[in-house]
Design goal:
By secondary structure, the protein is an alpha/beta fold. The protein has 2 domains: about 1-75 and about 295-325, no CATH class; about 85-285, Rossmann fold, CATH 3.40.50. Helix content is about 45%, strand content about 25%. The strands form 3 sheets. Strands 5-4-3-6-7-10 form a 6-stranded mixed β-sheet, with helices on both faces. α1 (about 15-35) runs antiparallel to α2, α3 (about 105-120) runs parallel beside α8 (about 270-285) and α5 runs parallel beside α6 (about 205-210).
Length: about 325
């Protein structure tokens, strides 16, 4: 919404009109006033004639020019048609996500990069599921991204029993997308380890479910190889104590999930690589958006025109009062 002038060239006439006005005023008006009786030329009359009436007339001229320039308020409206994509983020929150090979830890970096990804996709429905030994849904796919960002911020380790159950994590995300009417359905599955095999729902079964419902799965493996400083136990106050442990990662499983569902497998060893992975997924899963813009205008010329007429009326009234005072009529 902005204020514009439909005929701004009228403003070019302003200097010439004011110059002509002052010349005519000095040639006629003040000469007539000087010819009146000396006793009538003092006090408020002289001030009113010399300063107030010229100001009223000059202001009226300016207002008339503004009215002729046609001030308008421009309104812009957008109609957005988007073939949106439904996306579920399935994030590992097992104990090892607190490992400190990322700064400050894997989970904090994962939350930050995932939130950036959500902000870049304003037209898509995005949901969030988390898993460790079990899995649960924070939010089904929604366009209310503030809700998703709030949930991402609240993710923490220890809300579910410790473990890494990729099967339930993937199946939970599939369950939230299987009835979606969207043409494109995507799961981004992020984990830092291998399935511990304790769940009855195997990753292979969850993968078959994703295939049945036409859901594409991008698998992300996060974490460095070798000895990593990670939590190895929990103290009485709820805090964790850390020690160096050898990390294990099942690359073959994540590759198989991605391949069977027409997705891709990625491995990220740093925050920069993780951000690059999300950026690549953002480019691969482009949302088709059609934006139509409409403009409409509202004229406001009558405001300066009305003000100009009011100023002219005041000028005429003041000059008549001055004439009566001087001439006694």
């Amino acid at each position: 919404m902005s204020l514009i002038f439909a005929s701004p060239l009228w403003f070019l006439a302003l200097p010439f009109l004011l110059w002509g006005f002052w010349r005519l005023r000095n040639k006629q008006g003040m000469g007539a006033w000087r010819n009146t009786a000396p006793s009538m030329q003092g006090s408020w009359r002289t001030f009113a004639w010399r300063y107030i009436t010229p100001w009223l007339q000059a202001s009226a001229i300016c207002c008339l020019l503004i009215a002729l320039a046609r001030p308008q308020r421009q309104w812009q409206e957008e109609q957005v048609n988007a073939d949106a994509i439904d996306i579920m983020l399935a994030m590992d929150i097992s104990l090892s996500m607190l490992s400190r090979d990322f700064e400050p830890d894997r989970l904090s970096v994962t939350k930050k990069v995932a939130a950036d990804f959500v902000r870049k996709r304003p037209y898509d429905r995005i949901g969030l599921a988390v898993f460790s030994f079990e899995a649960f849904t924070f939010s089904p796919p929604t366009t209310d991204h503030k809700v998703i960002l709030d949930f991402i911020e609240k993710i923490e380790v220890g809300r579910i029993a410790h473990g890494t159950a990729i099967g339930p994590g993937l199946a939970t995300a599939v369950n939230r997308l299987k009835d979606s009417p969207a043409k494109s359905k995507v799961i981004i599955l992020l984990t830092d380890g291998e399935d511990d095999g304790r769940s009855e729902l195997r990753p292979e079964t969850a993968t078959e479910l994703a295939q049945v419902y036409g859901i594409r799965v991008y698998t992300l493996g996060i974490g460095t190889d070798g000895n990593v400083l990670m939590p190895v136990g929990q103290q009485a106050d709820g805090s964790f104590y850390f020690d160096y442990r050898e990390t294990h990662f099942n690359t073959e499983l994540l590759q198989e999930i991605a391949q069977k569902t027409r997705g891709r497998f990625y491995r990220a060893f740093s925050e920069q690589e993780l951000a690059a992975v999300y950026q690549e997924i953002d480019q691969l899963e482009k949302t088709k958006v059609e934006v139509r813009r409409f403009q409409r205008y509202t004229d406001y010329y009558y405001w300066p025109l009305g003000l100009a007429l009011l100023l002219l009326a005041l000028d005429i009234l003041l000059r008549r009062l001055l004439a009566r005072s001087v001439l006694g009529v």
